[in-house]
Every structure is written in structure tokens, then in C-alpha cells.
Amino acid sequence: MALSRAAGRRPAEILCAVLWLLIAAYVWQTAASFNPTSASFPRALALLLGLFGLVQLARQFIGGTAAEEGAAPLFARPWRLAFSFLLVFGYLLLMNTIGYIAASLLFGLLVPALAGFGRWRFSLAVVVGTLVFIVLVFHVLLQRPLPAGLIEHWLEAWF
Asked: What would the pLDDT profile of 14-72 be if each residue is shown by its tens digit?
């Protein structure tokens, strides 16, 4: 039975790796239309996505570890996979509606709670700390705008 589980997961892993490579190629190509300063960040992300896809693909052809042989199939709980995609899609919609910070705060607190992580104070501290870091790096140091919302307009007045 362990072999059938690993064999059932392998095509899905290969498909995901190919999708990462295609997304990386698309991001790299799309960034070519940006000016060189603006293209550096998307291209760095494209390189990381491509590297991740290559590593994931190589793992499937080189062979997995003994722990992976007993792993559950990737689509063992399809409702969780569908719900994950819906959460990410909802996050992107909310980002354009209520802004980056508010959407990230909601997403960062909802995902661990829905996954059964009961330490909400810890989650809140991690999410707020991460958002403060992102605001300091991108908004203050690099002077790059975040998707606008109520909180971002308030930050404009302070910084």
C-alpha cells in the first residue's frame, strides 16, 4: 500500500513542479517589459520559483526518502485543497478591496485558525511583526507603495 500511495503522489508532484517552472518563465518574461530597477524583484522571485520547481522535479526523478513512501496522496482531501485555493483567491480580492495590511492581517490569522493552530496570540504576534517588517522595508526604506486601503492611507500620514 505504501508504494501505491507514493506512486499516486508522484504525477501530482511532477505536475506542480512543471507549473512552478511555467509560472517562473511567465514572470521572468513579463518582467522584461519593466524598467531594469522595477524588473529586479519579479526576476528574483522568478529565479526562486524556477529553482524550487527544478528541485521538486529532481526529487521525483532521483527518488524519495523512506518517509515519503508512506506519505498520503496529495489529493487525499480534495476539499482542503479547494479551500486553500479559495482562501488565496479571497486574499487577493480583499487586498484590492481593503488594502494589503488589513487583508494580510485577516489571512494571517484565519489560515492558522482554520488549520487548527490554537495559539492565536502567537499567530497575531507573528502576523503583526511580519507586517511591520514589510512596511518598514518596502514602504519606508524602498519607498514602494503597498496596495492601498484604510490602514495604508493612515500610514501615508505618518511616514
From this structure: 888 888 899 889 888 888 888 877 777 778 888 888 998 899 888 888 865 444 555 55
Q: Are residues 69 and 114 in the same domain?
A: no
User: Grid coordinates standing for 38?
Assistant: 522595477
**The C-alpha cell that represents 47 in the structure block:** 529565479
CB–CB of 115/121 below 8 Å? no
Q: Taking the model in full, what pTM does it have? A: 0.51
DSSP assignment of 133-154 equals: HHIIIIIIIS--PPPP-HHHHH
Dihedral in degrees, nearest 10, Cα atoms 107, 109, 113, 118: 160
- Asked whether residue 89 falls in the same domain as residue 153, the answer is yes
Domain extent, residue 70, equals 1-74
Q: How many distinct structural domains can be found in the chain?
A: 2
Query: What is residue 76's DSSP assignment?
Result: S
158 lies in the same domain as 81: yes
